[in-house]
Design a protein that fits this description.
The protein is α/β, with parallel strands linked by helices. The protein folds into 2 domains: about 350 residues, Glycosidases (TIM Barrel, Alpha-Beta Barrel); about 60 residues, no CATH class. The chain has an 8-stranded parallel beta sheet with strand order 7-6-3-2-1-10-9-8. A 3-stranded parallel beta sheet has the order 12-11-13. It has a two-stranded antiparallel ribbon with strand order 4-5. Helix 2 links the parallel strand 1 and strand 2. Helix 5 runs parallel beside helix 6, helix 11 packs parallel to helix 12 and helix 12 runs parallel beside helix 13. The chain is globular and about 60 Å long. The two termini are about 40 Å apart. The N terminus is likely disordered.
Length: about 425
């Protein structure tokens, strides 16, 4: 009898970036424009979207969660349902495309730690619970993501971080996930960090938290993090970066069947030039789907950002599968082709029988930089992959655990030092 994670069909979706006003569209919410956007997403064959309320607009005061904003979120979810699209909602925005969106009641004169102040945490719980409860009766509501890469507020290089310990990060995550569950019991609630959780020494949000808290492990794969700069646009490490993060995440899983959601991945120019975006998209998704227990792939993002909006990093303007005019781009055609290829197929990749051993503490992982681009472990995994090995990752603590290895189909291990 297959585990439910293996029996579930692959999911393909997009992070929804509205064509009118970007995420500022909540200020001038136009349901007809949203419907037109969703039509263009559905035409690619996608089955879900990830949606981003702007936290300061939805909860401008700690004790005011705007009913009208919540109604608009529900209207968006209902419009998605009419087009066969399921919806995941990120609650605490938080951070999007280089901009921070934090309520005034957490900053400057009201400066309080986002993760430890009792009043702030209680306000966050109320907000997440309210959004989840508003959607709990919608069949197309997948569940909540606590927030988008909220971990960036906790440590360097953020210019004004709210510093916490790993223990405080874990307590905060547990409370936020519990609030989501209280609002919408039984849905897929999870949290999502940017790759500092996997790559940065001393970062308070840890791989163990990502891999063990919530209903799935989310990974966000961006090759502008040094991967493409070091290995080039067609390098093995570049085209397998998403697969590497999935396998790295699985090393920390205590449930070998736990799903991994490739929740963000995109083709950022100039690291991936526009004329090569389709190839990168096809290679990245194919390599990611060569990993076991992948829940799905959610591309960043649905539509380009209008050049009429100022001050975005250059790469953010052109990440869409579709243009601002809703025309399909080469990466969009590639995704549509992938969706068609997988229609009706089961996702059962062959086991990765050889695992690269990562020697780090299984809870705190103090020396994560070895896993980052340029690090000894990262480069060894890329070298093995270039040799056609299809490496998994196993923590040194489990490298001699026969039951753990058997559950994952691992029959051989190799250390980074042994990689030629």
């Amino acid at each position: 009898m297959p585990h439910p994670a293996t029996a579930q069909k692959l999911r393909f979706g997009a992070n929804y970036t509205p064509t009118q006003g970007w995420f500022h569209h909540w200020l001038d919410f136009d349901l007809d424009a949203v419907r037109a956007d969703l039509d263009s997403i559905a035409q690619l064959g996608l089955d879900h979207i990830r949606v981003f309320p702007l936290w300061p607009l939805f909860q401008p005061n700690r004790t005011l969660i705007r009913p009208r904003a919540v109604e608009q979120l529900v209207a968006l979810a209902d419009a998605a349902a009419e087009r066969g699209l399921d919806v995941n909602v990120d609650g605490l925005q938080g951070h999007l495309s280089s901009f921070d969106f934090l309520p005034a009641w957490t900053r400057t004169w009201h400066r309080r730690n986002l993760f430890t102040d009792p009043d702030v945490v209680a306000g966050q719980e109320a907000y997440l619970r309210t959004l989840a409860a508003a959607l709990a009766d919608r069949p197309n509501f997948l569940g909540m993501t606590v927030g988008n890469e909220v971990n960036q507020f906790s440590y360097d290089p953020h210019p004004d971080p709210d510093r916490i310990s790993p223990e405080q990060a874990a307590r905060w995550l547990e409370r936020m996930l519990a609030a989501c569950e209280a609002g919408a019991p039984g849905r897929l609630h999870l949290h999502a960090e940017y790759d500092a959780a996997w790559y940065q020494d001393g970062h308070p949000f840890t791989p163990a938290q990502a891999a063990r808290l919530g209903g799935a492990t989310a990974v966000h794969s961006w090759v502008f993090n040094g991967t493409a700069q070091r290995h080039g646009r067609t390098g093995t490490a570049t085209e397998h970066h998403a697969a590497y993060l999935i396998e790295l995440a699985r090393a920390w899983h205590t449930d070998p069947h736990r799903p991994v959601w490739l929740q963000e991945v995109g083709a950022p120019a100039p690291h991936i030039p526009a004329e090569h975006a389709a190839r990168f998209t096809e290679a990245t998704v194919a390599n990611a789907l060569d990993c076991a227990h992948v829940w799905g792939v959610t591309w960043w993002c649905s539509h380009d950002v209008s050049r009429g909006l100022a001050d975005f990093p250059e790469l953010e303007y052109s990440l869409g599968l579709l243009t601002v005019d809703r025309a399909v781009k080469p990466a969009g055609k590639a995704i549509a082709g992938i969706v068609e290829e997988w229609r009706g197929r089961e996702h059962r990749p062959a086991p990765r029988t050889t695992a690269l051993v990562l020697d780090t503490d299984p809870v705190t992982a103090p020396d994560r930089s070895v896993c980052a681009p340029g690090g000894a472990f990262f480069e060894a995994w890329a070298a093995l992959t270039a040799q056609g090995v299809r490496p998994a990752v196993v923590l040194a603590a489990y490298a001699h655990d026969k039951e753990h290895l058997a559950a994952r189909g691992i029959t051989a291990t190799v250390t980074p030092e042994e990689v030629v």
